[in-house]
Write a structure and sequence with these properties.
heterodimer; A: Immunoglobulin-like; five-stranded mixed beta sheet; 12 strands; about 20% strand; B: mainly alpha; Cytochrome C Oxidase, Chain A; two-stranded antiparallel ribbon; 20 helices; 2 strands; disordered C terminus; Cyt_c_Oxase_su1_BS (chain B)
Chain lengths: ~350, ~625
């Protein structure tokens, strides 16, 4: 049992060492890349430190007990002790004090992270300076609408760094949860109401992560819950503004250039456009936006949030989406021949608002 | 009643168990049924870990995986952990308080059969079109969208087995309040009885919330109501509240009896009175009370707002205080004691640091703002497995070894027991410790696969290897049970030699009427007090007299069977014309059985004084 006691201590030391940063910088909550994640990380470190302290005390008593009080003879009858008021007061009061130390920053951070008053000022004074993104979670894809900029995009969330970005969150079918681990904790997208919170994205950390953070759905939503990923491109404000301007410039669907792509566009207009828009304007009602907006599809990092964006994968996806995302809402909604799929692929690859 | 000792045919034994109202036999029924579901849930866990051993694995499909994860959680909580605890409560609590049986033996049997038929109904979903797939929490928007009958099996199965649990809880409350032996005051009750008492009170108040939630769910799915349909004025967040108003106390319903088992084991094998007994009792009651004040900490990310989140965060942290009191009291019970490392004691000793690890992550999760990161990730998975396995399952394994001689009259093998212990403990920490980090590294829970190159490979592989250790440990335990049952070496009243409480003052297994004469309790650890004064038996509190016993009854089985049939009718009514008549027939069976019970006089029978004396002359022990 002595070994057990020592063995229990090892992982705890490992906690401290490992908390310092593990996992991949684009996915790990332990490598905070923004103010919110930093606040949360600091709370994790504080609570872990207190808890390791508690564990050390327990471990010391535990090891002493295991070593000193083994039965030596079958005849020994130890003294029957009822208890000790002093000891009991000590182990009641000290934990209370420790919890107070933890509770104060907890409450303060909870209110700070929920402060979205800047969002609401907009309603009174017209346009607000704050950047607002409406997130709509759907069975296995994400829509990002920028109400002030009047553009809609999907799957790749584009945000400026170094400022607070405010989010309105909701789901259109079942409950999901919006989570970018390195940037901040999650918030559920409910079907009943709109949830609000803010995040801040750090430029340096974004560069370390390769310009892209991974976003995840964190609430079980069906077979492809595990595959409901999205990507976050965090850009300097100027680049972000440029992207917004380029998006806003697309008022008509972009005409395809090559002959195959033009054929693909025709197929697209017959078979796909009912669900997938190729203009960024947010004039269509939500209910009609049944699939991801594809305006900037050629620039997306991934196909369907999970496959590398190349010709082969687009074709594979179009041929049998069920194989890649079981239970998705696209399977069976269209019937395309292999030639048509090739043509649509050419067309989709050309959909870029920026080169 | 010398029939008790006679040899019986297989058919007669089965009939005996189908109709029994004896708490000791019902305990065995709970142990067998709970053990069966525990193995089933364990197999489901192995499917989960095999699927997640490597990235992009296709051992099972996405849809099937969701069914497996749902059934793993539901089975382990409702059909394994709780029934196994009920097994020990039934076997031990009436003996610990020196009672003849539980207060309502008939209801005790009914509670078991309701649980059993509910559990069977739920698991038949595997063969009838697919199991539920919305997680054991079955959040409303997803569960209403779920196709097929999986969720109907969940709602109806849990409704039936939940009724059984509620009945069992009420029964223990009444038993402990009314049936204590002379001298057994509240503050002399062993900790296992105390924790059973508080857990039963929690069942009484928590299960109605689940019942209401499940009724809403059932009516939404089967009869077209709209409690949770937000387009029709319903609200899905209400389900979350109802579920967790039940679900959080449920954690304490499970873990408090586990605390009780460990308190008794630690005190027994340290040969010391429990340190700070009254503060242990106080802490138990306080945990039970606070357990109802913290449910929304499961919903920090639902969007309840900062005021609710802050209040529930602080309330949750408060629970750490009474739990800490318990940990230190256990440590100081051992301090200065004379510790004998039997198999049950090894579990109890390993429980202390394991549960502390689960407890401290609980406090970390209570930090609402940081919980936004932990919530619904493998950090939470790691946390609750530390609490449930490190607390409840270790106590069940400890209890199995500790109470086995009392229930079956023979000891489990200590050497094999220790092999099970080490394999299980190592496997448990190997599986779950690393999951804390997986969660922090960005792995959400309930995902059927993960993609390569996200830094999650090694952790998941280690976790899967650990799971195999636990599986082997359980196989060794089963082997242990088989070989010791075959050898069947009979043991006396107090096979551990260190027994302190009343259950060790009676033969193993006890006669069906328990104590021939109610024992006189002269203090905490009643049997220990007598032993220290050199006595072998408890002093009787009454002269030998006739003992009034209840008759066996087949009615509980029929009542439960009727509901089981009715549940199929209610479910298939939507698809087939025969559904409605089956629903009516099933309800009729239940109601008629209840009617028979109500109008038929059943006064039980008496064991006559002369027969009891007769027993003693033959060498039987009371």
């Amino acid at each position: 049992m002595k070994r057990l006691g020592k063995w229990r201590l090892l992982p705890l030391l490992a906690v401290v060492a490992l908390l310092a940063g593990c996992g991949e910088p684009f996915l790990s909550a332990l490598q905070p890349a923004g103010e919110v994640a930093q606040i949360q990380y600091d709370l994790m470190v504080l609570s872990t430190a207190i808890m390791v302290g508690v564990i050390v005390v327990v471990a010391i008593i535990f090891i002493l007990v295991m070593v000193r009080f083994r039965r030596k003879s079958e005849d020994e009858i130890p003294k029957q002790v009822e208890g000790s008021h002093t000891l009991e007061i000590i182990w009641t009061v000290i934990p209370i004090l420790l919890l107070v130390v933890l509770a104060v920053p907890t409450v303060s951070a909870t209110f700070k992270l929920a402060d979205v008053s800047e969002m609401d000022q907009k309603a009174e004074e017209g346009e607000s300076e704050a950047l607002i993104v409406n997130v709509r979670a759907n069975l296995y894809w994400w829509e990002f609408e920028y109400p002030n900029e009047e553009i809609v995009t999907s799957q790749d969330l584009i945000v400026p760094t170094g400022e607070k970005v405010y989010f309105n969150l909701k789901a259109s079918d079942v409950k999901h949860s919006f989570w970018i681990p390195p940037v901040g904790g999650k918030m559920d997208t409910n079907t009943d109401n709109v949830n609000k919170f803010w995040l801040e994205f750090d430029q340096t950390k974004a560069d370390e992560a390769g310009g892209i953070f991974y976003g995840k759905c964190a609430e079980l939503c069906g077979p492809s819950h595990a595959l409901m990923d999205f990507k976050v491109k965090a850009l300097p404000r100027a680049e972000f503004d440029q992207w917004v301007a380029d998006m806003q410039n697309v008022t008509e669907p972009v005409q395809a250039e090559t002959a195959t792509a033009q054929a693909g566009q025709e197929v697209f207009n017959n078979s796909c456009i009912g669900c997938h828009a190729v203009t960024p304007a947010n004039t269509t009602p939500e209910q009609a936006r049944m699939g991801p907006n594809l305006t900037d599809f050629g620039n997306r990092t991934l196909v369907a949030g999970i496959l590398e964006n190349n010709e082969e994968n687009i074709k594979n996806w179009l041929k049998d989406p069920e194989e890649y995302k079981p239970g998705n809402k696209m399977t069976g909604k269209y019937n395309l021949s292999d030639e048509e799929i090739d043509a649509v692929t050419q067309y989709l690859m050309g959909l870029k608002v920026q080169e | 009643m010398s029939t008790y000792a006679q040899k019986k045919g297989v058919g007669a034994v089965i009939w005996d168990y189908l109709t029994t109202v004896d708490h000791k036999k019902i305990a065995i029924l709970y142990l067998i049924a709970g053990g069966f579901f525990f193995i089933l849930g364990g197999l489901e866990a192995m499917v989960i870990r095999i699927q997640l051993a490597i990235p992009d694995n296709n051992f099972v499909s996405a849809g099937f995986y969701n069914e497996v994860l749902t059934m793993h959680g539901t089975t382990m909580i409702f059909l394994a952990a709780m029934p196994l605890l009920f097994a020990f409560m039934n076997a031990i609590v009436p003996l610990q308080i020196g009672a003849r049986d539980v207060a309502f033996p008939f209801l005790n049997s009914l509670g078991f059969w309701l649980f059993f038929f509910g559990g069977v109904f739920l698991n038949l979903s595997w063969f009838l079109g697919g199991a539920p797939d919305a997680g054991w929490t079955s959040y409303a928007s997803l569960s209403l969208a779920s196709e097929g009958h999986g969720i109907d099996f969940y709602a109806l199965g849990l409704q039936i087995s939940g009724a059984g649990t509620l009945i069992a809880g009420i029964n223990f409350l009444v038993t402990i309040i009314n049936m204590r032996a002379p001298g057994m005051t509240y503050m002399r009750m062993p900790l296992f009885t105390w924790t059973t008492f508080v857990a039963s009170a929690l069942i009484l108040f928590a299960f109605p919330a689940l019942t209401v939630g499940l009724f809403f769910m059932m009516f939404d799915r089967l009869f077209g109501s709209n409690f949770f349909d937000h387009t029709m004025g319903g609200n899905t967040v209400i389900w979350e509240h109802l579920f967790w108003i039940f679900g959080h106390p449920e954690v304490y319903i499970l873990v408090l009896p586990a605390f009780g088992i460990f308190s008794d084991i630690i005190s027994t094998f340290s040969r010391k009175r429990l340190f700070g007994y009254s503060s242990m009792v106080f802490a138990t009651v306080l945990i039970g009370f606070l357990g109802f004040m913290v449910w929304a900490h499961h919903m920090f990310t639902t969007g309840l707002g900062p005021i609710a989140n802050a209040i529930f965060a602080v309330a949750t942290m408060a629970i750490a205080v009474p739990t800490g009191i318990k940990i230190f009291n256990w440590l100081f019970t051992m301090w200065g004691g004379s510790i004998k490392f039997t198999t049950p004691m090894m579990y109890a000793v390993a429980f202390v640091p394991s549960f502390v690890a689960g407890g401290v992550t609980g406090v970390m999760l209570a930090v609402a703002a940081a919980d936004y990161q932990y919530h619904d990730t493998y950090f939470v998975v790691a946390h609750f497995h530390y609490v449930i396995i490190g607390g409840v399952v270790l106590s069940l394994l400890a209890g199995t070894h500790y109470y086995w001689p009392k229930m079956f009259g023979t000891m489990l093998d200590e050497f094999l027991g220790k092999i099970t212990f080490w394999l299980f403990l190592i496997g448990f920490h190997l599986t779950f410790f690393i999951q804390h980090f997986l969660g922090l590294m960005g792995m959400p829970r309930r995902i059927f696969t993960f993609l390569p190159n996200q830094g999650l490979e090694i952790g998941n592989l280690v976790s899967t290897i650990g799971a195999f250790f636990m599986a082997v440990a359980v196989i060794v335990l089963l082997w242990n049970i088989v070989i010791t049952s075959v050898k069947n070496v009979k043991v006396g009243n107090d096979p551990w030699g260190d027994g302190r409480t009343l259950e060790w003052a009676i033969s193993s297994p006890p006669p069906f009427y328990n104590f021939k004469q109610l024992p006189l309790v002269r203090g905490l650890d009643a049997y220990w007090i007598e032993k220290m004064e050199g006595k072998k038996e408890m002093t009787p509190a009454e002269p030998l007299g006739d003992i009034h016993m209840p008759n066996s009854s087949f009615i509980p089985f029929m009542i439960s069977l009727g509901l089981f049939i009715a549940a199929f009718g209610a479910m298939y009514r939507v698809d087939y014309a025969w559904g409605l008549p089956v629903l009516v027939v099933g309800m009729a069976i239940t109601l008629l059985s209840m009617l028979v019970r109500s109008i038929k006089d059943d006064h039980g029978f008496h064991i006559h004084k002369e027969d009891l004396i007769d027993d003693k002359d033959k060498g039987g022990k009371a």
